[in-house]
Amino acid sequence: MKLWVSARFLLSSLSLTLNHRLSSSVIPPLLRCHSPSVDMLLIFLYCYVVICRAVMSGEDVQCGSHMKDYTSLTGFPVFPEGTNSSLKKFNTREVWAKYHGKKDAFGVPYEVCIFSGCKNVDSGE
Q1: Tens of pLDDT, residues 75-123
Q2: How far apart are CA 37 and CA 120, in angstroms?
Q3: pTM (2 decimals)?
Q4: Residue 61 pairs with which residues in a beta bridge?
Q5: How many other CB atoms are found less than 10 A from the CB of residue 30?
Q6: Dihedral angle sign, alpha carbons of residues 55, 56, 58, 61
Q7: CA distance 125 to 123
């Protein structure tokens, strides 16, 4: 029973934190369910949808060595304090908005071109 209550709290917190419109239409029906197993399944599915939408919405992405490949760049790259790279200096939000999701004449995505500078934040210093 404690897990069920914790899952409901997590769901409510997640929806408030991410402030998704989907929350208002999905949370009330979820909280009216009486079966903990049904609640848990629905909460899991809802959290999955919210997380997928957050990733696809293009929210800022923290740069660093944790990045696996260029597909990690789902939003504007944000560099750690003290980074002095040229990429940080010249890849403004305007430049990002203009080029992200686009490819050059050879079919190479913009994200591939800047990935190394995003992953290796200590380069170019």
Answers
A1: 999 999 989 899 999 999 999 999 999 999 999 999 999 999 999 998 7
A2: 44
A3: 0.53
A4: 77
A5: 19
A6: positive
A7: 6
